[in-house]
Amino acid sequence: PYYVDMDQNLFLQASLHSSDQNLIVFVDTCVASPNSSDFRTVAYELTKSGCASDPTYSLFPSPRGDVARFGFNAFSFVNRFPSVFLRCELVVCRYHDYSSRCYQGCVSRFKRNADS
């Protein structure tokens, strides 16, 4: 466990360990939950499809493409839960493949009515 105070800035880094130097990593979705095995019942989205859902969530520059850096302010799920667990989905793409998910950034998908 990592202990922090409320509203403290948390900084995270995800690194891809591969011998292939032509791969990059992208943070797609991060969800927080008070339960380490259930990220649906009580959950809070920090980012979804590369789009920030939380106003304190930020992506930060990284030294290499195989490293993703991001952060947000610490929070709690009302006072009845002592812990917050984080699950993030990352995407790995080929470097310079501009049609890949990694280069699209925030992708907001809107559902349309079948009548329109």
UniProtKB/TrEMBL annotation:
Gene3D superfamilies in the record: Zona pellucida, ZP-C domain
Domain called ZP: residue spans: 1-109
InterPro entries associated with the record: ZP-C, ZP-C_dom, ZP_dom
Keywords: Disulfide bond, Signal
Statement: the UniProt record of this protein carries the keyword Metal-binding: no
PANTHER family with a match to the protein in the record: CUB AND ZONA PELLUCIDA-LIKE DOMAIN-CONTAINING PROTEIN 1, ENDOGLIN/TGF-BETA RECEPTOR TYPE III
UniProt-recorded name of the protein: DMBT1 protein
Gene source species: Phainopepla nitens (Phainopepla)
Lineage of the organism: Eukaryota, Metazoa, Chordata, Craniata, Vertebrata
